[in-house]
Amino acid sequence: MTILNTRDLVLDDWSVEKRNKNLYVWKKTIGRGRNAKAFLIPEEVHLNRGVVECIGLYLGDGKLTDNDLMHSQFHNKDFDLTKKIFKFFHSLGVKNSDITFTLTYNKDGLAVAERNLSTITRKFRIVKSERNKFPTYSIQVNGKIFRVFLKNFIMCSLNHIKNDTSLRKAFLCGYFAAEGWIGYSSKEKYLANVGFAYNPKTEEWLRDFCIECLKLEGVVSKINIRHEAHGGYIIIHNWENYYKMWKLGIFDGCKRKRERFMKIFNGVKICCEINKNMRLKLFTGDQNKLAKELDTYQATISNMKTGSKRNMWPTTKQIKKLSELNKVHLSEIKQNITHVRFGSLATLEANSDILDDVFSRENLSF
Fold first, then answer.
1. Average of per-residue pLDDT across 91-113
2. Domain for residue 178, yes or no?
3. Long-range contacts of 340-343 (CB under 8 A, 24+ apart)
4. CB–CB of 302/309 below 8 Å?
5. 353 part of a folded domain
6. Does 203 lie in the same domain as 119?
7. What is the pLDDT of residues 130-159, one digit of tens each?
8. Which pLDDT tens digit goes with each residue over 328-350?
9. Which of 252, 267, 282 is at the close of a domain?
């Protein structure tokens, strides 16, 4: 496990005093003005998955701009993410008394949001804003010392993250939780793309870092910049990539986004190519009766049996039904599946992991 020595992350003109396993850091102002707010930070920080996920979260929805070195702030509508950053700040020595909590709302959801926030603090501001569609949570830590330390800590961590596959996955998980989207068309029932948003004016370095991490994990992406909206996007297509991201745990950082992806995954039509010998074993007997059992047409059964058309492979639910009708164990059928197709486009070579995942889905449909 990588351990960062925080003494290397404080500025040379700051005063540092060791206190047990912590560092008391302060800076005395010469002349007029108040002294910078002192902080007690841990002497060492273990760069584990939880910490790195929060680094990805903060880079997505946190404040690191150079024009404000006095405040560290995280702003998000998901309380589970806000709570992660709250715990992350605490692990870096921040106390509740150092934090300003703000709940911003418009019309709906205030009571639930208040109950959520009251689980981590008794004191918070409530602000009404016409711009808000949903309640949002803000955690702000005031003080230049912590603000500069936090940025140095995050930037120093990036090289360690990129060179460690476990930490890369954690970073992508956190960054997707903050800036990721799942572009699903409910009308056409089609997953068009997933991706990450970024600011093309100030975050090209973050975009390139994210793309490099994705590439190292075998996920293909491309860049799209909409100049008129000042929006930049890392776009990912194809179920082969979506499946990889799911297996990497990239969708797991935000409960809302994970549930959205799992609903899509459980509902997508998945078909399988079965080798010839097993097809002949499964598609025996009266094809009209079999068509009724599988909720399809006799002509489709004929094409499934011959395997002549890629768009007429049996679905996972139909294969389960064929297993029951022919008294052939599903595990035996799975050993004879060569390819798996998600929707109408992406075809993957079958392996035991993919087959276990697609056959264990909920709400399977013909």
1. 92
2. yes
3. 340/270, 340/271, 340/272, 340/273, 341/270, 341/271, 341/272, 341/273, 341/310, 341/313, 342/239, 342/240, 342/242, 342/243, 342/268, 342/270, 343/190, 343/191, 343/239, 343/268, 343/269, 343/270
4. no
5. yes
6. no
7. 888 889 999 999 999 999 999 999 999 999
8. 999 999 999 999 999 877 889 99
9. 267
Neighbours of 303 (CB within 10 A): 17
Element (H, E) at 104: strand 99-105
Claim to verify: residue 262 and residue 314 sit in the same structural domain: no
Identity at 75, one-letter amino acid code: H
Task: Phi first, then psi: give them for residue 322, nearest 5 degrees.
Answer: -60, -35
Residues 305 and 263 in one domain: no
Look up residue 31 and give its two tokens. Answer: 């002349």
Task: Find the CATH number of the domain harbouring 307.
Answer: 1.10.260
Q: Residue type at 72?
A: S
Lowest mean pLDDT among 57-61, 211-215, 344-348: 344-348
* Tokens standing for residue 287: 């094809």
Q: Tokens 């609903």 sit at which residue?
A: 263
d(CA 240, CA 218): 10
What's the number of domains the chain is made of?
3
The per-residue DSSP string of 59-96 comes to HHHB---TT--SEEEEEES-HHHHHHHHHHHHHTT--G
Token representation of residue 219: 């996920």
* C-alpha closest to that of 98 among 73, 117, 63, 133: 73
Point out the domain boundary residue: 140, 164, 188.
164
User: Which sign, positive or negative, has the C-alpha torsion 330, 366, 344, 309?
Assistant: positive
Residues 275-301: tens digit of each pLDDT:
999 999 999 889 999 999 999 999 999
In a domain, 228, yes or no: yes
Quick one: 349 and 263 in the same domain?
Answer: no
Q: Sheet of 337-342: strands edge to edge? A: 270-274, 337-342, 346-349
Q: Which domain holds residue 211?
A: 166-267
Residue 52 included in any domain? yes
